[in-house]
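Hi L.,

You mentioned the student needs an example of a multi-chain input paired with its predicted structure. This one should do, with 1166 residues in total across all chains.
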Amino acid sequence: LRVGPTFREWAFLIMLGLTMAILSMLTDMAIDELLILERKLYRLCVDNDIIIVPYLVWTLIPVSMIVISAGVARYFAPQAIGSGIPEMKAIIGGVLLKGYLSIKTLIVKMIGICLTIGSGLPYGKEGPFVHISSAVAHQLGKFMMHGDSGVYENESRDPDILAAGCAVGVACTFSSPVGGVLFSIEVTAVYFAVRNYWRGFFGAISSATFLRVLNFFKDSHGSNKGDIMSVESHYPTHFPTKNPFVPVELPIFALMGIILGLAASLFIFLFKHTILFLRRNKLSIILFKDYWFIYPTLVSLIITSITFPQGIGQYMGGDRRFSTFMDELFLNCTWTRNVSGSCDQILDNWHTDDTSKMFVSLGVFQIVFFLLTILAGTMPISAGIFLPVMIMGACFGRMVGEFISILAPYGLIAGRPDIIIYPGIYSVVGAAAFCGAVTRTISVGVIMFELTGQIVHLLPVMIAILIANAVVSLFSLSIYDTIIEVRKLPFIPDIPASSTIYHQITASHIMATPFIIAKDSTIGEVEDILMQLDLKKPIKAFPLVENKESMHLIGSIHTSHLIRLVKNVIGDDARLKEAARRR
Amino acid sequence: LRVGPTFREWAFLIMLGLTMAILSMLTDMAIDELLILERKLYRLCVDNDIIIVPYLVWTLIPVSMIVISAGVARYFAPQAIGSGIPEMKAIIGGVLLKGYLSIKTLIVKMIGICLTIGSGLPYGKEGPFVHISSAVAHQLGKFMMHGDSGVYENESRDPDILAAGCAVGVACTFSSPVGGVLFSIEVTAVYFAVRNYWRGFFGAISSATFLRVLNFFKDSHGSNKGDIMSVESHYPTHFPTKNPFVPVELPIFALMGIILGLAASLFIFLFKHTILFLRRNKLSIILFKDYWFIYPTLVSLIITSITFPQGIGQYMGGDRRFSTFMDELFLNCTWTRNVSGSCDQILDNWHTDDTSKMFVSLGVFQIVFFLLTILAGTMPISAGIFLPVMIMGACFGRMVGEFISILAPYGLIAGRPDIIIYPGIYSVVGAAAFCGAVTRTISVGVIMFELTGQIVHLLPVMIAILIANAVVSLFSLSIYDTIIEVRKLPFIPDIPASSTIYHQITASHIMATPFIIAKDSTIGEVEDILMQLDLKKPIKAFPLVENKESMHLIGSIHTSHLIRLVKNVIGDDARLKEAARRR
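Structure written out for the whole complex:
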């Protein structure tokens, strides 16, 4: 019976869960308040005759919030900039990033995400929350885990603690304890010890439990008192458990996987090259260095101008801010056939009174946010990219679903008009596949089950995710690995492209020429080989083998060294020496 | 763009999924037919006046099936005996077990599980299916993956392929592709490369897809033609998504976790010692060696006699066989208050006309099957232990749930009589916690979500699993590691008891005495140390350090060697020599 140290770990994980539950709740409340405030202000002046007034209210509030967020990060903790997942991958991989897990960074990142997400721009809080949670884990760990010995208080020393932190971070964001653990493993770990598995789960479940209890108290004292408990899942769906999809639809989901895989490759490609461009462009270098506030102002002004509800914004979901679109995309109602009247509000928002106009809305939304999310991703503020990607995927899925629903209003099974198409399922599938492809993870599927509170769409979701992942793997790294690459974070890369086939590569596959040097090669043979060399394509080294029969590789020999050796034996000097000896 | 070998792997995984989907379907159909046949025969003669007739029909059919299963395994492939998971863990760990993945073993195991599970005894097919699927993966891999090079056609060479095989095996058993992958990683891997993750998912999703399509064809041509598609989950539940449990209930689930963790420890302890007893007992050694059919006959006769529905069996769910109990334990109906009349059949089976009698039924069932499952687990046949364990846990959960439902018929929230207790949730929680504890896995939770098709019970399930796991980790290994231990399978064990605390162990914690030898110790000091040794507790070796100040360990020195060295310098011979020199 071994107890002692284990209890200390449990206590640590419970404390981590509790802290993150509180932080997560506070962040959500702050973001909600900011978004509500913005909307109220905008609605106050939306009817103003001079269109410039609502325009200024719509744009300037978010712009100032973004600029403040950028300023705080710049002056107090530049480590808080960005998603956080790539850096955590580097740290867990064993690299020490100075000040990255400090309390200062933690506070700056907290303030940062409240402002950036509260601004309503296309940002998410998953990545930042991974960072925040890891910092909390690190700080808590200092007190709770290492107590008396100072040797281990070192930022890169505690991968177990940080791995638990990452898991809790993802779990908090979407209240997805199981998917969170798996996702954090997929994005931060290269190799994984199964015996550490439970830590992430313990922390994640603690935080989920505390969140649930906190919500219980909040709700029973708050406005929705009658409704004792809010539903656990973030975007609950209500698809029927019987025939939500039929096997005939599976190829459509697979095709969606292919398309979204290609789209994800394009997304990552554009993202990478936009960042590289900004790094190399002289103007932007000056801007970033000396006039830090210009770029955030400009970009956020562009984004808010485009989404201005009285301009192009009317085709993009109206006067709501970005992060609020998720629920209605997933909802189980067919927009083109508002049977029960349950989706009136949505139809109003998305101009679905006219079918063709609705498709325009959905299309414009996707294309515009595809580009805006990339642009937004280049800003020097703390912000994540997971949610925007998910919303784009969901939007694509909704479009496909509604389209098929129009084509086949009575479903795809002959003689069974009761088995209809559910466009909501397509939306969930699209969100999962695009997220999975961009982050190159499979566990997004599990997050999706927890997020929707349903598991009926398991098969379509997993098929689309796997295919999208397979497609994107042909073209690019994950978005996080891409960031590691372009930021040149110190990171030991994985052995490339896993395949058992690689075990079968033989030396001849990677040899440039068939020449080898054996220990029993004669000088004549070596000379012959050297004579045959193409001087335009010089070979740096030759493999050296035990003997010509066994061919056991024992090392390599540089061409220059080989030439020198041969010269020593049969070169001019050697000949002169030999001549002198015989004289 | 690197394509080539990847496509070969995809094709392989799809073929694996297809093969396993077909095998899984055939097995299920065979088992169903056998169970139906048995029941029909029994019902034909249940009303016979002479009780011996139904008794013989009830007992002898299963007994003969078990004996045939044991005989087939004994004479054709002893490798097919047992669950299969421990052996797969050994093989994936790098050990070569002869003939374990051969086609002969595969066929024998297929026949074996049809007979053993079809007999209605407390056996499951999860473990065997892991074995079967791995064998299929190995055989398929021979053709599809290694094509031209013979070097790698070696049973222990392809852990990637086998890991995918295991995942597909679990996934097929409960149509739980996601949980299956995770479970197979937990029970077979020690360390895990994240880049191999997708293989398991790809295979599992392929098999799930094919199973779905196969079921579609089967159903649209079979008896339930109207019902185009069977529901995907094995034991679908229908709990409300709103308030299926309240936070006040969470401590109860935690307590269930503790109790089931203790029960699992007891289960594993008894299982281990029963097997060890049978291995050491002289009578049983003779029985197993020379009269192989006696033990299976005896044990299966005992089990079927105890479950005889006109005997004690009437308190254990009546004349159904073991594996059919699962659905009704999970059902969302409160047995003690049969409001809608939906659980009439169950109530009849479990004698719930009288509340106290129902608790007797549930209690007797648990205790009897707790012991019978252990007894059944000692038999030399191919059979798994996962399902029986799950059913016991579900039964315990149902008992607790019904009990609380009686105590608090109007729920636990004052003033909200509409929020009631759902005993079905307790049943799911119990099943998950007991399974998780016995196998020491967390992913059982995910399997449970896929099995029930709902995720509303995530929090209670995960809390109970984690606590049960924590409790069992204090007392014993997992059931699979226990089998590895008692069967003395060659296996490189993991570094024990994971904890970051272990980094802080210093040498003094594991040193038996405070004595050390330094390079600058004088002979006098060494002699003093040797003099102080307690001859009854001899010390084998001393640590050797650089010097008495730095204390850097540079090696160890055997006591005998040390004594010899000291003797060489100041022993009798040395003194005589010195005397001779001076003379």
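You could point out the following to them. Residues 254-486 of chain A form a domain with the Clc chloride channel fold (CATH 1.10.3080.10). The first strand of chain A starts at residue 191 and ends at 193.

Best wishes,
N.
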